[in-house]
Structures are given as C-alpha cells and as structure tokens.
Amino acid sequence: MLSSTENTALLLFTRTPQEEVLHKNLIEKQKVSAQKQFFHKLMEHARKLGQNSGLSFSW
C-alpha cells in the first residue's frame, strides 16, 4: 500500500526576482536592486522548504 506522500508532489511556480519587482512593490522607496535581492531571498527560502518537505519537489 502506498502512503499519501508517495503520490504527492510539490510544485513551486515563481516569477524571476526581476519580474516580481515589476509586478509588486512590497518595499516602497527602496532601490530596484534591493527589491530584487529581497525576492531572491524569498524564493531561496521557499525552495529550501520544498526540498526539506520530504515530498517529491520540482521548481
């Protein structure tokens, strides 16, 4: 019998940090480079969480 995690995959759909800056302004009055760095860190954090989830992970 298969466990529920054997039939489950985690897919992470993201935009590039550059695209996120164009579509979202989370850090007002900050330089574009600082905003790109912020979104890059968020994406890396999400990627690490996905890899450590124990599920089949693709990004």
- Give the overall shape, derived from the CA principal axes: elongated
**Could you give the distance between the termini?**
28 Å
Mean pLDDT: 85
- Class by SSE composition: mainly alpha
Radius of gyration (Å) = 15 Å
Unreliable stretches (pLDDT < 50, length at least 5) are none
Strand order, sheet with most strands = 1-2
Total domain count: 1
One letter per element, helices H and strands E, the order comes to EHHE
Helix count, per DSSP? Answer: 2
**Major β-sheet profile:** 2 strands, parallel
Number of strands: 2
Strand content: 5-15%
Q: How helical, in percent, are the residues?
A: 40-55%
Description:
- The protein is built from two helices and two strands.
- The protein has 59 residues and is mainly alpha-helical.
- The protein has one domain (16-58).
- It is elongated, with a radius of gyration of 15 Å.
- The model has no long low-confidence stretch (mean pLDDT 85).
